[in-house]
Amino acid sequence: MPRPYEDAPRLPEGDRIELHALVSGDWVELEIGPGRGWFLVERAEAEPRAALVGLEIRRKWAAIVDGRLAGRGLGPRARVFAEDARHALPRLAPDASVRRVFVHFPDPWWKKRHHKRLVMKDGFFDQVARLLEPGGELFVQTDVEERAALYEAMVSLDARFVPAGDTPGSPRLEDHGYVARSPRERRAIADGLPVHRTRWRRAAISAPLAQPSPPE
Questions:
Q1: Annotated catalytic residue, options 26, 107, 166, 175
Q2: CATH 3.40.50.150: does it fit domain 17-202?
Q3: DSSP string across 17-45
Q4: What is the mean pLDDT of residues 75-90?
Q5: Span 76-80, mean pLDDT?
Q6: DSSP 8-state symbol, 189
Q7: What is the C-alpha separation between 194 and 142, in angstroms, rounded?
Q8: Residue 196 near residue 143 (C-beta atoms within 8 A)
Q9: 62-99 as b/e: b if 16+ CB within 10 A
Q10: CA gap 19, 31 in Å, rounded
Q11: 107 included as an active-site residue
């Protein structure tokens, strides 16, 4: 018996996947873990010049959101693939070809045994730095202050990223200008809960990343 959503879209096979062979547009934006996908859908509708790629580990939502994009006529510019970003990012090419990377409310696991599942660790920032064009943006938001502080501390160790928040020298943003909102972001706003937003820009330099271990 086939697994549910066995036909969810997957990236092409091979060690090198050209992003512009997947979607068309003036530039590429990448979302890690789009979930139900409304940010990606709204972003595609709001910015018709952008080509968008989502990497979603859950086959169900990859299939549903990719179908939703196609149904709205956005398929040529926006796709979602059922992939684990940790394994997919190293295969994407070429270097310096992505204008924005979005990560919304990542890592919803709290127990120590789940730390191996975290996205924001190990070589993640190496891959983002490789893919971002100079001046390109890494945008991360969460409703957990401790996680926001952790991500900020991790990125601050890497000279390839420059803070690009509301205040010089800080990555923190009060809000963003991407028009689109993720479902969790909308819920937090409706409930009056704080959303911790950070933005970084890719510097035109190369420097090694010191990776701290996730907290115990």
A1: 107
A2: yes
A3: EEGGGT--SSEEEEEE--TT-HHHHHHHH
A4: 96
A5: 98
A6: H
A7: 9
A8: yes
A9: bbbbbebbeeeebeebbbbbbbebbebbeebbeeebbb
A10: 13
A11: yes
What are the start-end ranges of the E strands in the chain?
17-18, 27-32, 50-56, 78-82, 92-93, 98-104, 132-142, 161-163, 172-173, 196-202
Please give the angle made by the CA atoms of 156, 95 and 44, to the nearest 5 degrees. Answer: 85
Using left for φ > 0, alpha for ψ between -120 and 50, and beta otherwise, residue 23 falls in: beta
d(CA 57, CA 34): 9
* CA dihedral of 4, 6, 11, 12, whole degrees rounded to 10: 180
In this structure, the chain runs to a length of: 216
pLDDT at residue 64 tops 70: yes
Short-list 60, 53, 59, 120, CA closest to 91? 53
Beta carbons within 8 Å of 117's beta carbon, 6+ residues apart:
107, 109
Mean pLDDT along residues 69-85: 97
pLDDT at res. 113? 46
pLDDT tens digit string along 144-175?
898 899 899 999 999 999 999 999 999 999 99
Nearest Cα neighbor of 156 from 112, 207, 204, 119 is 207
Lowest average pLDDT, out of 21-35, 83-97, 119-133, 159-173, goes to 119-133
Look at residue 201 and tell me whether its pLDDT is greater than 70: yes
Are 185 and 212 a contacting pair, CB within 8 Å? no
The β-bridge partners of 56 are 82
151/54 Cα distance (integer angstroms): 21
- 151, two tokens: 């991500």
